[in-house]
Design brief:
The chain has one domain. The protein contains four helices and two strands, in the order E-H-H-E-H-H. It has a two-stranded antiparallel sheet with strand order 1-2. Helix 1 packs across helix 2.
Length: about 110
């Protein structure tokens, strides 16, 4: 990122702070729908979200409408299916790691 004179590296220019990964909100929503534990265990929620997001392609946008405006109903359904599968796999992965940690501790 180019910096203007006097601008510090950690200061974001106006408007840039709205950049986000399109999948973040979808993944968090799917986790909430899929796991009661995620409602009260923030570390668990974060672990699942990170694993699921790392299994999805990054889609950085400024506004969600930027993405959905150009997608067909089939494209939207495909994205939701990918999110569902990524979250399901992430929940299974985190559970398997917790079992391994429990077994190692005994």
């Amino acid at each position: 990122m180019l910096l203007t004179p006097g601008q510090r590296r950690y200061e974001l220019p106006a408007g840039v702070d709205s950049i986000h990964n399109y999948y973040e909100h979808l993944v968090l929503e799917q986790i909430s729908d899929s796991s009661e534990r995620a409602h009260h265990d923030v570390d668990y929620l974060a672990d699942i979200a990170c694993v699921a997001l790392n299994r999805l392609p990054p889609r950085y946008i400024r506004h969600n409408v930027d993405m959905t405006f150009f997608m067909s109903a089939e494209d939207i359904q495909e994205i939701h299916t990918k999110v569902e599968n990524a979250v399901k796999d992430a929940i299974e992965y985190v559970a398997s790691r917790e079992l391994e940690d429990t077994a190692d501790a005994e």
